[in-house]
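Quarterly update from the structural biology core.
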Amino acid sequence: MLLTTEAELDNLLTDEFPVRNRLIYLNHAAASPLPRRCGDAVKSFVDEYVCFGTKNYLDWSDHANQLHTDLARFINASSADDIALLKNTSEGISVVAMGFPWNAGDTVLSSDEEFPSNRIPWQALADRGVQFREVSLRQSGKTPEQGLIDAMDNSTRMLAISAVQYGSGLRLDLKILGTACQARNIAFCVDAIQMLGALPVDVEAANIDFMMADSHKWLLGPEGIALFYCRDKWRERINLFQYGWHMTEKYEDFDIKTWQAASSSRRFENGTPNILGIRAFAASLTLINDIGIDRIEERILHHTEFMHEFIKKSSNLEAIYSDPASMKSGIVTFRHRNCPAPQLFKYLREQKIICAERGGGVRFSPHVYNTDEEINNALITANDFSI
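Predicted structure, tokenized:
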């Protein structure tokens, strides 16, 4: 679908997101409401399953294969073989953390602002002699990227970082970090859950080795299914710790007695695919592609600038993080000068403004379909709140 005018885009978004008739939804950094086409895809598959069972089972693999292909194209991976469909971001990170060929004394470098999903799997490597080291992203006189690069040493085997920090919204320059990792022979693992679907990601340009992201945030999909990217040079070097029928090379031959892991990243998909999730994720991805990721980025960054400008002029609100424009994403976290964040958060929910309590304040994370009017009304409501 080619959307040539803003009016066409607005009409599409009004139809796709009936949630706007009920709520001001500013919580895409947590979980997105499903667009209408995603719900329709789920209903269609459920109706098919209810009426025909597995009659069309042989076609289901085609849907999965197509999603692999579409996701590879979306992130500019060199091949669909680089893509696996896993349950969530945590599983993807764990595949890398538990399977990477570590040596005692190796170090995983990360930041001090990571979500637990990007801390716990690395910390669990301590009994193998692998150290997890957190680096401040806010060092005086240094960009976040330079702080991370300066912390790299001879023991560093992996940089494991979120492309966008969940609490602050800080966006890192993945190309700078990927280039530094490549020059030092350091593997580069990116948790892209707060970027993918909101801002462009190019795994080739950024020299990313591993990347993972659930579909249920900015990708506008359901929970329970995630993209996992593994660069081909690492595919057979990651030791497997999950096994099942679907991860074998000849997975459709149930009678074969000898097996080997698939040569593609399907080797990381150990069991029966989440066909319902695949249908839903695929539908949501068509919406993102219909709009265009560059257009989505433009609108989201406009929202971010709009929020920061409002907060600067407001009487009661202050942004907790005021990073330069190049480091901004779709997340803005702020506090109310006269009331605690939990009370403000509770009040906003009562006013049907859906957001999150994160990073020491209240977090707004609007998407492409939100309007200036909605965001303005939400900020006025927050500013005018009093205990």
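The mean pLDDT is 96.
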